[in-house]
Amino acid sequence: MAEHHDGPAQEYRPPWMDVWLAFRKHTGALVGVGVFSFMVLAVLVGPVLHGIDPQYLDIAARNAGVSWTHPLGTDNLGRDVLAQMLAGGRVSLAVGFTAMLLSLVFGTAVGVLAGYFKRADGFLMRTTDLFLALPLLPLLLVIIMLFRDTLRLAFGPETGIFLLIVFVIGITSWMQTARIVRGEVLAIKEREFVTAARGIGSRERRIIVRHVLPNVMSPIMVSATLGIANAIITESALSFLGLGFPPDFPTWGRLLFDGANFISITPARVIWPGLAISLTVLSVNYIGDGLRDALDPRLRGT
């Protein structure tokens, strides 16, 4: 009898363990986690270890090459490139995470409401289609040009631009999440446990919170990783066009914009921020692929 009870106990694994084991087999995802963790750790701890002020001007050392004092050289005003990279990384990653959260919350809310309430489905999905049909980059440029000065006066030049960039990226990148979540909710709301909860008189809000949302977390998590990459690229594009943060508030995109005019003199000024953007976005995309494969029972063979 003891052997009969021990066998099933040893074979049982909680669902999160199956997800972790499947994620661990995805080599690209593990490499992505390592690279992304290094990037986050570098921008958080790096300024403490490399204590040079990113805005300190050393005219005598302008356009300097690699040295012990300036590991990545200096720009045309003598500012340390590594210090600017670390400071810019903080802003770029903060924009990525914050804009992702905004788009994720908005997209999930729209997707759940559209999928669960049939009377709201038509209006919400047609609104989603309208946003998908808009040319996003010109729309972003128009919004920034209209509200940039107002927010600068209200919140200051740095906080105002940060809020504006986060808002415009978040409000123009929720549509894919909404469509994915809606499709999942349409399937889940017909399942037996939702029908049973509705049959015993549970309120709609309770059913959504307790039964529907937990079962759509896997596509939401995948959308979250891809949303970070999308936000970083969009912010970099806006900064490269000169419509992002001010020159004394560096981001990776702003460093690309500032270094483009000096690419023939100091090409490293373009190479380093471009490499940082590429590695961060690539690592996040690999993490998203690993999560998608690990969270899908059909792909992990269970």
| Percent of sequence in beta strands | under 5%
Strand segment count: 0
In angstroms, what separates the terminal alpha carbons? 29 Å
Share in helix: over 70%
Please, how many helices? 13
* Category from helices, strands and their pairing: mainly alpha
Main beta sheet strand tally, sense and closure: none
If you average the pLDDT, what whole number results? 82
Pattern of helices and strands: HHHHHHHHHHHHH
C-alpha Rg, in Å?
24 Å
Shape: globular
Low-confidence stretches: 1-10
Tell me about this structure.
The protein has helices at about 1-10, 15-25, 25-50, 80-115, 120-135, 135-155, 155-170, 175-190, 190-200, 205-210, 215-240, 250-260, 270-295. The radius of gyration is 24 Å and the shape is globular. The chain starts with a helix and ends in a 7-residue tail after the last helix. It contains 13 helices and no strands. Helix 2 (about 15-25) packs across helix 13 (about 270-295), helix 6 runs antiparallel to helix 7 (about 155-170) and helix 12 (about 250-260) runs antiparallel to helix 13. About 75% of the residues lie in helices and about 0% in strands. About 35% of the residues are buried. It has about 300 residues and is mostly helical.
